[in-house]
Predict the 3D structure of the following.
Amino acid sequence: MKRYDDIVVGSGISGMTLALLLCMNGHSVLLLEKNRNIGGSMVRFYKQGIPFDTGFHFTGGFYKSGILSDMLTVLGIDDQIQPVFITKEAGNRVIFEEDNSVYDFPFGYTETIAKMKGYFPGEKTAIEKYFGMILNVCRKTVALDLRNISLSQDWIDEDYISLDEVLNKLTGNKKLKGLLSKYSMCYGAKPSEISFANHSRVSFGLYESVARVKDGGDAFIRAFKKLFAGFDIDIRTNSCITECADVKNNIVGRFVLNTGEEIIADRCIFTIHPKAILDVLPKSHLTKAFISRVNAFEPTAGFFSLFGVLENSMPPDKYYEPTILSLFSSTDINRMMDPSYTGEPALVILKNQDAVNGKKQVVLTALELSFSEHIRGWVDSTPGSRPEGYQKYKNDRIDKIMKRIMKAYPEYKDSFTMIDAASILTFRDYLHSPDGSAYGIKQKVGQFNLFGKLPLRNIYAAGQSSVLPGIVGAMLSSFIIGRAVVGKDPYADFIKERLNS
């Protein structure tokens, strides 16, 4: 049996980050991926030679000394990841479709505050207090500073109140509340469900700056692969753990893979969905309370996605900056993010410039809110054998999204071509996600997500369902677990050396 210091299960952004951190600290690592390629939802897919992003579209955190910039610096891939910033206010726009009111968001924290005051001059006090509270949360969140990172989460008062509660105390203005809740699309939970603290941790970086990345998620995967080549790491695709065996004193002695191979490791860190972790752990060594807790986790919202290109629309010397257009049929984000909502779902339309066969191309991705309730009748179906009812559902959603795109961009009537579309069932099956949600499980007020050491003492959990959703949250969870595995003092020295070099 081969032996490793650590097994990392799942090779999405969290798994790749953790595997590299452990290797950089002298550990031997086995990285397991159930799919045929590493990268998880960071992987792009190609249709007609055109690249489309699967799960990574844009992020905050690239500003100087921002958490994402610091993490990329420590990993040594900051020079390989090229952010493409949205710089124009109209590039980050919200339209409330009930009256076609338009709101553009500038970038920079102070600039955003000033713009909001301009839109709502009678709400200056509420706006100042809201943004002041966000800043205060981020200052009190130790984990957002890599130099002081800790495994134990320092809960603050704002972890126990919802975004909805805060907004309702600050203002009665429905449009202002809707705009301040717009980044609910970036964590897939209602304002009444998410804690104000976690909303703040996600939103702060997005208020400072929003950027796509040149070559999307593929850029991250290439960068990690390049560095993996210099370390003691084995990467196995089409592989997963099927059994945790020889458990003594709550320590797993042997890990059995789907290939039948048996592995010994000091630790195993799962960066996959909590319910997928539960499927692997031996139930005889788990309490009923632990099992019930994991089974009670709720999935975030997902997206019905449409992918296309603008044909013959790019002169050779023309540059198209990326844009984000959010179409909200209601100012009530709680209502709009309820699966029973019968109005038009929230729709986010992303445009970016990409290179296709050496030629510049404008690529468009439309993400429409979707929930597991929408596809409940077809959950037992598989790719290639979906029933006729599913195809009708899919075609109906495509038609409605196309109409909304044409209404928002009438100038694209003769130039936009749809290439592909995907429901949350597609994401479920191709990404091996239990439910196809966009951000794993919901980050709810008062909920303790699966993170850190589990009841089996050499088993850990990380990933975007642990600390925060999205690329920043997923990577951050791995940095925190890295400290627990490597040790407080050597890890602190490692972080400081990397950030100061």
